[in-house]
Design a protein that fits this description.
Length: about 260
């Protein structure tokens, strides 16, 4: 099945032209005339790639990129820009856009950029899958050999002034009648974050402290993403728990629990 592409441009003639080019190539295509319209559509539907005009009224392409990279970071973004906006296009690349195309562009140029972007996305997804499998295999190995034991001589139970109790020895968190159990790896991550409250830890530092092995700058976020996502879902069951782990874009994470131990 061909990928779905979202076209965002406030010029109807540009939208119609791009839709025709992409549909002839077999892509699924939808188009909107504003950045606001793009964000609303992305909340309801899934796309693999977005062709985005840089200069639009109200919400320009840079603002859209900032919002989209928070909402759907896996979406490939290709910017459409004029010669006078090259500096902004370069800023967009720094913010996470895959490529930029100068208007007017040939259909071959557009399709070539799209092909490269989709290939990059497929490679990233494959890498995430392999790293997740590696993470799961390492966790099973550690559990089978008893590596999940907790170091002794440390304070392993924390009671917070909002009623939340975190028991790192048992790998449990509870509040009133609500209780969740953490996996050994989630427990290690929770312990590291608690020991470094308010401190930004890089992706590589976290992987080393939690998993015990070195990674590259691009591997570390992929290793951490599924683990942090699972832990966040569990923490969201507690008061303000969804805000405890904050992503510091391009750097790592910080544990920002406002409550204090009692």
């Amino acid at each position: 099945m061909k990928s779905r592409i979202l076209v965002v441009d406030d010029e109807a003639i540009v939208r119609d032209s791009l839709e025709e080019i992409l549909r002839l190539e077999g892509y699924g295509v939808q188009s909107v005339e504003s950045g606001e319209g793009a964000l609303n559509l992305l909340q309801r539907e899934k796309f693999e790639l977005m062709l985005l005009d840089l200069k639009m009224v109200n919400m320009d392409g840079i603002d859209v990129i900032k919002a989209v990279t928070r909402m759907t970071p896996e979406l490939i973004i290709i910017l459409l820009t004029g010669h006078g906006s090259l500096e902004s296009a370069i800023d967009a690349l720094r913010l996470g856009a895959h490529d930029y195309i100068l208007k007017p562009a040939s259909s071959n140029e557009i399709l070539s950029s799209i092909a490269r972007g989709l290939a990059k996305r497929a490679e990233q997804q494959h890498r995430r899958m392999l790293l997740a499998q590696l993470d799961a295999s390492l966790q099973r190995l550690k559990e089978s050999e008893g590596f999940e034991t907790v170091p002794t001589g440390e304070l392993m139970t924390l009671n917070f002034n909002n009623g939340v109790v975190i028991d790192l020895a048992r790998r449990e968190i509870w509040h009133g009648n609500g209780r969740v159990a953490l996996t050994p790896t989630e427990g290690k991550l929770m312990k590291v974050l608690l020991e470094h409250r308010g401190q930004v830890l890089s992706h590589r530092e976290l992987v080393l402290m939690v998993q015990g092995y070195e990674t590259t700058d691009w591997e570390a976020p992929e290793v951490l993403r599924p683990l942090v996502s699972r832990l966040r879902r569990k923490l969201s069951l507690f008061p303000d728990g969804e805000n405890w782990i904050t992503n510091v874009r391009g750097t790592g994470y910080v544990f920002d629990m406002k409550e204090e131990p009692v």
